[in-house]
Write a structure and sequence with these properties.
The protein is of the alpha+beta class. Helix content is 59%, strand content 12%. It contains eight helices and seven strands. Helix 4 runs antiparallel to helix 5.
Length: 370
């Protein structure tokens, strides 16, 4: 209500300001000025205030500026035309201005609502991300605790038992030389397991800290395969390692030592999960601007739902699937993936072919031909 009063008051002030100059003013000039007041009132104070300004403006315009003055009578067709035009224009302009203001207010309200919903959605995503990060952190802690409990305690228990037996027998000579050598072999093997555990943890830490310091250069793929195959000979047992190499082996643009380590990890895994008297195949092929190195085995295979998960930290397949002692930490494939991806490559598991059940494929950039 007070807004309508303000609008009417402004119209009266403008009317009072124009009255002393009435004889020198054209009614059209007065009408246009009053229309501006109506527009401002509608825009700034609302359509109701604009309507009030229109009504007061119509009355003032008729009473003070259309002859005969100080009456609501109108003389002459030109004055009727001016009055009618003013009335229609004032009412329409007031309503249109008020409508525009309402639309602007509605638009601002919608914008505020959108911003509020966006803030809520952003907060929900942040909370969900924090919850997911916390869940993964707890899962990682649990996996790490399980790994440390199993993979540290088991070798330490064996080492402790062997050392204790040897110390107890130091002066009693109850053990023959063969038994002593067996206990020393146990200590040596379990120490190697502890060393592998530490190297695995350091490897993961380097990958996550982006501190591998790889020296990428053009490297002959046949030399990389030869290094990995020679190192893996002691893992084969009764299995046969087959190498399929093209007549003109390509070069990869990568760090040769780290790629050989990845290849050895894949051969090691193939030996773990393959029965005796089976084949493990290493094959090399060129594909466009990349080189593919594949390791196939004839084990039980990897379930499709596990083919991505096995590259996560501390993920291992069931113990009963392992055909030689020592399951490992579940870090080997995670480290391999980190090494390959740091050199612009990919690694994936899939079904094998030609009598093989599982294939791991490493794809690396090919070196440019010199």
């Amino acid at each position: 209500m007070w807004r309508s009063g303000i609008s009417a008051g402004i119209v009266l002030l403008v009317t009072a300001a124009f009255l002393p100059f009435r004889e020198h003013l054209n009614p059209t000039e007065v009408a246009l000025t009053l229309l501006l007041v109506v527009l401002f009132a509608s825009t700034l104070l609302g359509s109701t205030s604009g309507l009030a300004a229109s009504v007061v403006g119509i009355l003032c315009f008729n009473f003070f500026f259309l002859p005969p003055y100080h009456t609501f009578n109108i003389s002459g067709p030109e004055n009727w035309l001016a009055f009618g035009t003013f009335v229609i224009t004032a009412l329409i302009a007031g309503q249109l201005s008020g409508y525009a203001r309402r639309r602007a207010e509605e638009s601002e309200a919608r914008q505020r609502e959108i911003e509020r919903l966006y803030d809520e959605l952003r907060m929900a995503f942040e909370q969900a991300s924090e919850a997911e990060a916390l869940r993964r952190s707890e899962k990682l802690k649990s996996a790490l605790l399980d790994a440390v409990t199993h993979d540290l305690r088991t070798p330490l228990t064996s080492i402790k038992a062997s050392v204790t037996t040897l110390l107890d027998d130091a002066n009693q000579t109850m053990l023959d030389s063969e038994s002593r050598e067996e206990f020393l072999d146990i200590i040596n093997e379990e120490t190697d397991r502890l060393n592998d555990f530490i190297e695995g943890m350091v490897g993961i830490a380097k990958i996550e800290a982006d501190a591998l310091n790889l020296a990428r250069r053009s490297s002959p793929v046949d030399e990389i395969v030869a290094i990995a195959a020679q190192r893996a000979e002691k893992l084969m047992g009764d299995r046969k390692l087959q190498v399929d190499m093209p007549d003109e082996p390509p070069n990869v643009y990568a760090d040769a030592a780290s790629v050989a380590e990845v290849l050895f990890t894949l051969i090691d895994n193939a030996a773990k999960y393959s029965p005796d008297d089976t084949r493990i195949r290493i094959s090399v092929s060129r594909a466009a601007d990349a080189v593919e190195l594949s390791v196939d085995d004839q084990g039980r295979g990897i379930p499709p739902e596990m083919r991505d998960k096995i590259f996560d930290k501390f993920v291992r397949l069931e113990e009963q699937d392992i055909h030689r002692t020592g399951s490992g930490l579940g870090l080997g494939l995670a480290i391999a993936k980190g090494i390959v991806e740091s050199q612009g490559g990919t690694i994936a598991a899939s079904d094998g072919s030609d009598g093989f059940t599982t294939r791991f494929t490493v794809t690396l950039p090919a070196a440019e031909d010199v």
